## 1
Amino acid sequence: MKAVSIPEERVSILIGVEGETIDMIRELLKAEVDVKGNDVTIDSEHPMEELRAYNIVKAIGRGFSPEKAYRLLEKNSSLAVINISEFAETDSSQERLKGRVIGRKGMAKDKIENVTDTELSVYGSTVSVLGPMKGVEIAKKAVEMLLNGSSHGNVYRFLENNIEKVL
């Protein structure tokens, strides 16, 4: 059994209209998914399905829509969560770093997503990445470079130099 807490405002998105989202997760992954407050428990006889259900719930909790979170059903897909508070202590510094990851008019976020075939969610004090494992690995590194202060130009060059690893 796995357990995860998600933000209260994301619980209704996890459940979905008339329970459709949580029912789909239960049906597709043959897993028991129970919600009590903002605590979610996942249980399945199949460890891999349990892990996949856990990752989908976690992704929805980190700001992804259910449709985007379902990408975790694809073979060789993964989820990475980067805690911005590991890079900045104050709220204002964390907000500044979130802005760096998003970029002017969303350009940095879009560039990372497009080059690595991933989805990014900047939510709360985290940046989450989901998609194919290789793409997630490269996107995570690019995000960490931005959080560590690398220029956007250097990050874009890093992405271009590693694009063949994603394809």
## 2
Amino acid sequence: MATLTMQVPDISCGHCKAAIEQAVGQIPGVVTVSVDVAATSVRVERADGVAVASIEAAIVEAGYTVGTIAGV
């Protein structure tokens, strides 16, 4: 299992949090998704083999911009 943290500067409210958690949470192999509105970050615990690109794409498709990615 690996942990990934992404900066998502567009996060500003509870709706953003819910939308991102729902979008990323639907990806097979994602164990947990935690959005920190104050820090504008998304923390994802994922099984080995879950592509970072698929997580990033889910966030972008939900209408948000992905910035820095750590833990790749």
